[in-house]
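In full, the data.
>
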Amino acid sequence: MEKNSGQFLIIGHRGLREKYIENTMESFIAAESENIDAVELDVQLSKDGKIIVFHDYDASRLLGKDGKVYDLRYDEVERLPINGSNETIPTLDEVLGKTKKLALFVELKTIDDDFQEVNAGLEPLVIDALRRSGRRNFFLISFNPKSLIRIKKIDKSIPTGLLIDKDTLPLHKDINREYLRELGSRLILPSFEFISERWVESLRNENFEVFFWNVFDLDQAKAAKAFGSRGIITDFPLAIREGMA
């Protein structure tokens, strides 16, 4: 990332969700205008292979439509208003084109709640989009360890990170340094429920960087910083930044 290596980073979860609908262009543009350190965003594929920025696999919560988002063609997706607003699902190319300075944590959505692989072929398309944009300030992150391995097979220099929560623990061997090095990821992103000063310290001693997500308030953010994490991913970057100033 282009931030000072010692700086504690406050990352907006799905953009500036504090004020705007998640994963929308207005959310990302506002985050850049507010000088948020970075944003996390989610990518998957439309049925015809466009990289779209959208979190849910199911279309019902935000689009009011039955079925899976990856089963819709892009010409269908781009017409659907998000949560009744004027915003529609952006493509990754749009985000890259309209937010030149914003650092990105790009989550690749390649495994569903039943641990079945989805969005096949996403990794090379995302890498190609980033290369074409000239973007340098990014990480590619995923809950799916196989996705991270596929990225490293394409280009070992691409910075990657492993997302972890209790629901996805069955995907992994013991989460130790040997396993993490096998994945090739130097970034570990556990849910806040895993917070442990000793664990963070042990990871840092092995040159891994830790970012906690599911951080909802100032006390949690301060705890993450005190325990030595590199930063947090939160729905409330503005409030937490102000509280930690």
User: Anything to note?
Assistant: The chain has a mean pLDDT of 96. The chain is about 30% helix and 20% strand. Residues 122-133 form the longest helix (12 residues). The CA atoms of residues 152 and 184 lie 7 Å apart.
